[in-house]
User: Which sequence fits this backbone?
C-alpha cells in the first residue's frame, strides 16, 4: 500500500475555523458543510 499524506490547511482556513468555533453560532454539521468538509 502507498504512503498516505496528510492534508495541509492554509493559515486563512485555520483562522476561519477558529473564529467560527469561538462564535458558536452553527452546529457542528452546519459548520462542516459550510467549510466544504461534507459534500451532499
Assistant:
Amino acid at each position: 500500500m502507498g504512503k498516505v499524506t496528510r492534508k495541509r490547511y492554509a493559515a486563512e482556513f485555520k483562522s476561519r475555523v477558529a473564529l467560527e468555533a469561538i462564535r458558536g453560532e452553527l452546529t457542528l454539521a452546519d459548520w462542516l458543510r459550510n467549510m466544504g468538509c461534507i459534500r451532499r
